[in-house]
Amino acid sequence: MWAAVINRMGRARRVAVRATLVPLLVRCGIALSLVLAMVVAWPVEIAGGRFLPLLIAVALYPAIAPRGRGATVVILVVVAGWIADTTWFEARVALWRVLSIGTLLYLGHTLSALAAVVPYDAVVNLDVVTTWLGRAAAVVLVSAVLTVIALGLGAELAGSAFVLATLVGLAGAVGATTLLARLLRR
Fold this sequence. Notes:
- The chain is an all-alpha fold.
- The chain is about 85% helix and about 0% strand.
- The protein has 8 helices and no strands.
- The relative contact order is 0.11.
């Protein structure tokens, strides 16, 4: 048992010595965005209390090990916190929180994808990361604008027209998913 612990400590020291700046900054971006998403999503009573270290540890895991299901687990924990806050604690659904959580989760997820393919000791040009973040910013901006428009239309089209628009949107999403699945099988 002690040999395994010593072996892991040696590997951690080797990683710390060989790590380069850009992959380290990407992993810091993962940690920052996912910790902020946890804090924004969870109720203040929980996130500000004794569970804060546990939430931070869960949020930091994808920054340490970006390959695997860590980012998905964090996203599910953040969504569970937001659902708990808006249902159990009856917090008001605020647009800034929805947009913040969506933005922070997307940034954490996309940076995890980048960190999964860039080794910790790789020499990476900063243009790679800035281009990646530029595309992520464009996606976040477009989705935020569409969210605000959809919420505005939702208030205007209350009733059967809203239900019809929702069903048409779901049918479009299913159709796009089916089309992409068929194209990937080629």
